[in-house]
Amino acid sequence: MYSDDLTIQDWLTRHARYRPNKTAFICGSTRMSFSELNASVNQLIHALQKTGIKKGDKIATVLPNCTALWEVYWACAKMGAVAVPLSPLLRGQGLANLLNNADTSLVISDKATAGYISAVKPLVPGLPDQRYWLINSDDTESYTSYHNAKQNESTEEPLVEKVTGNDPYNIIYSSGTTGLPKGIVISHAVRALYGSLFANSYRMAPESVVMHSGSIIFNGSFLTLMPAMFLGCTYVLHDHFDPQQVIGDISKEAVTHTILVPSQIIACLQQEGFNKVSLPSIEYILSVGAPLLLEHKQALNRRIPGVFYELYGLTEGFMTILDKTDAFRKTGSVGYPPSFMDMKILNEEGHVQPAGVIGEIVGRGPLLMDCYYKNEAQTKEALKGGWLYTGDLGYLDEDGFLFLTGRKKDLIISGGVNVYPADIEEVIIRHDAVRDVAVFGVSHAEWGETPVAAVVLTANSGEVNAEIIRAWVNNHIDARFQKVHEILIMDELPRNVAGKILKRELKERYESRK
């Protein structure tokens, strides 16, 4: 059990008191000091309390990156409500399922999703109309206006219940890449430790300027979101990802720390201004959300040396970090666990594997989730004896650094031999015409399964076609069982909001053609 005082409840209040004029938050034309942000959050809390929201109630957001989403996060932190960020791409029964599963007390959405929310209302029984709030709209007949609700409220500190370290702060829903989304319950204490542990791991300081250009509804965003508020940094939030805006704001705001998922790194590498000379302030670029292929790691390290970090991790609470000082020494690794964490590699029988032998990655530490919300069976399957069974495959080298080989569910068994998609992807990405790649297994009459690759071509790929790439790849692969059966050329690979490639969707698309 955690200390009652290990919470994020007072972080914003503390900064508003001790550094009121420091710039806290930038989003588009909005620039707020800690004092201004705290005052606006206090107004929101007063408005929520008038609606009947109290400690422990679930507030679901169906919002893109915006000021309101940032305010909701810190209102929940201060008043003890539970933030449930949901993707604005969710529709119909899929959205209703999560709202019902979370026992949602109030929904906050925007004009762009209002129509979808209206269609969902009948599917969420027991949630009255006044518990649906809308930003950026005057539709006050069907919704409560977010801005109208808070604008006349007091900016004074509200009376709130004491929050303890064991109280929940988030329910973060899994991406659903391998099944139905699960509600991952994360406590105040875990979020507090995100702030302190990751601030240390990333060499952040109160003077740091942190930028995020991906969606802040997925857990990876909290890797810098929490350290930024813990230290009182300036946080720059983009409403959508644009590589030119990323480069422009790193320069304009003297950004020191930013997270980019692999697809965003690839996009930035296409820009001439993405280099150390143009961006002298940058100290840290974290790749997260999916494995970054070696070719792209090397390109980033050439463009901006000494800033690359990589994090492998699960929302459920186990992570490893490749530090910038190891980026060249341990090429291909995703690092080792931060302080207070431990890991081991297990085979199917549960025996610890020696260095160099592939098995399931199993980890433990103080950042583990409380549970899957209302899902005891899956909680017991994931958490055993204080260890998290990740479902991912990898191996440790002689120094204890972790190397990923893929997810257990992505493993291709061809002719009785284990084929790891990542090994083939590393070969394919070396082709000059390939910008992005994902390998997945499909059924095969003779071999059981065989690899298929979906690729995105570069802008200057010329006359290259699928057969040319397949011949090149198979000529560069020695093992017969790794040879690619077919190449699919796509405009973009399907990804979820966290930037993870949806291999299940790729497989379904492939099989639907047959």
Main sheet: which strands, in order across?
A: 2-1-11-10-12-13-14-15
Report, as a whole number of angstroms, the end-to-end distance. Answer: 53 Å
The CATH superfamily title of one domain: ANL, N-terminal domain
Tally of DSSP β-strands: 26
Poorly predicted ranges (pLDDT <50, ≥5 residues)? none
The CATH topology of one domain comes to Rossmann fold
Structure description:
The protein is globular, with a radius of gyration of 23 Å. Helix content is 29%, strand content 26%. With 514 residues, the chain is of the alpha/beta class. The chain has 15 helices and 26 strands.
Q: What descriptive keywords fit this protein?
A:
Luciferase, domain 3; 15 helices; 29% helix; alpha/beta; globular; 26% strand; five-stranded parallel sheet; eight-stranded mixed sheet; GMP Synthetase, Chain A, domain 3
Which helices and strands, and how do they pair?
Layout: H1 11-18, E1 23-27, E2 30-33, H2 34-50, E3 58-62, H3 67-79, E4 82-86, H4 92-101, E5 104-110, H5 114-120, E6 132-135, E7 144-145, H6 146-151, E8 168-173, E9 183-187, H7 188-201, E10 209-212, H8 222-231, E11 234-237, H9 243-252, E12 257-260, H10 262-269, E13 284-287, H11 294-303, E14 308-313, E15 319-322, E16 342-346, E17 359-364, E18 371-372, H12 376-382, E19 383-384, E20 387-396, E21 402-407, E22 412-414, E23 417-419, H13 421-428, E24 434-444, E25 448-457, H14 466-476, E26 486-490, H15 503-512
Parallel strand pairs: 1-11, 3-4, 3-5, 5-6, 6-7, 10-11, 10-12, 12-13, 13-14, 25-26
Antiparallel strand pairs: 1-2, 8-9, 9-18, 14-15, 16-17, 17-20, 19-20, 20-21, 22-23, 24-25
Helix pairs in contact: 1-2, 2-3, 4-5, 7-8, 10-11
